[in-house]
Amino acid sequence: MDAKTYTLEFEKPLRDLGAQLEQLRQRSIGTKLDLADEIAAIERKIAVTQREIYSTLTPWQRVQIARHPRRPYALDYIAVLFTHFQELHGDRQYSDDRALIGGTARFDDQPVMLIAQQKGRDTRENLQRNFGMPQPEGYRKALRLMRLAEKFSLPVITFIDTPGAYPGVESEARHVSEAIATNLREMAMLRTPTVAIVIGEGGSGGALGIGVADRVLILENSYYSVISPEGCAAILWKDRAAAAQAATALKLDAGTLNTLGIVDEVIAEPYGGAHNDPAAAAANLKKAIQKHLSTLTPLATDALLDARYERYRHLGPYEEAKA
């Protein structure tokens, strides 16, 4: 797959129109004919088609955008939004997990602790990063860095982008479920401000392991779910081909999650996804981080913990049965 020319199925009409536009431009140059009217007509048609496609995206189509191979990853945002990033390695128990990175940095000259899930751009890097699927040592490294942040009163910013924690035998042997569960407990009690941002895939406990925060933000074309659409389809419909139906049933898209109160803000993306204009996506992300850090940082620790408790205590509707 060539990431530079990769086109999603629902974007093929735009690709075809783009090819027609390029042909007209080349023809105009080669023959010296004035094709300005024809070129303008195609450009108008592209604009209309873009509005039709991107204003009516289904949850499954947003999942596909979240997985786009050119979508910005955590390190891309870190390079643009932060300075003096110093990566810290190892969980001090087993090894260093390159699917989960972290370290100190400065955001608007404010020291912060960054923790992020990182995918690879090619096969070699994906193997090094384990396709963005952390193992137990990754979550234990994350917890070590959170405790370090707490010690020095550094706000913690996490970037979530994983299909899920690694489900292999070696991961289970080193107790991945226990590592994630410990993070859930400790993040709930962490005595420093925390902001979690879903920038791509937010899959299952693998995402939640760095996602219990004072503010949970999500990019417009990201998803956050207890299971992947394919996994849900395989269980409920006995057919992974029902992934689109499962995506709708899971209510995993950003807008629905915001309506349900699962996330605190949906961060707008450029037309067609963050990969079409990474600089604009980063600018929107920066504004959101600035807004929420400025709200959280002045809070006294007890007030911060009380607000965090209330956030998760009231998450999701419930009913009490009559006696």
Tell me what you see in this structure.
With 323 residues, the protein is α/β, with parallel strands linked by helices. The protein has 2 domains: 9-56; 68-313, 2-enoyl-CoA Hydratase, Chain A, domain 1. Helices cover 49% and strands 15% of the residues. It has 14 helices and 8 strands. Strands 1, 2, 3, 4, 5, 6, 7 and 8 form an 8-stranded mixed beta sheet that branches. Strand 2 (100-107) and strand 3 form a beta hairpin. Helix 1 runs antiparallel to helix 2 (36-54), helix 6 packs parallel to helix 8 (176-189) and helix 10 packs across helix 11.
First-residue to last-residue Cα separation? 60 Å
Report the CATH topology name of the largest domain: 2-enoyl-CoA Hydratase, Chain A, domain 1
Number of domains: 2
Classification by helices and strands: alpha/beta
Roughly what percent helix? 40-55%
Oligomer: single chain
Rounded mean pLDDT is 92
CATH superfamily of the largest domain: 2-enoyl-CoA Hydratase, Chain A, domain 1
Question: Runs with pLDDT <50, length 5+?
Answer: none
Kindly provide the name of the CATH class of the largest domain: Alpha Beta
| H-E order | HHHHEEEHHEHHEHEEHHHEHH
Largest beta-sheet details: 8 strands, mixed
Query: What is the number of helical segments per DSSP (H or I, 4+ residues)?
Result: 14
Shape: globular
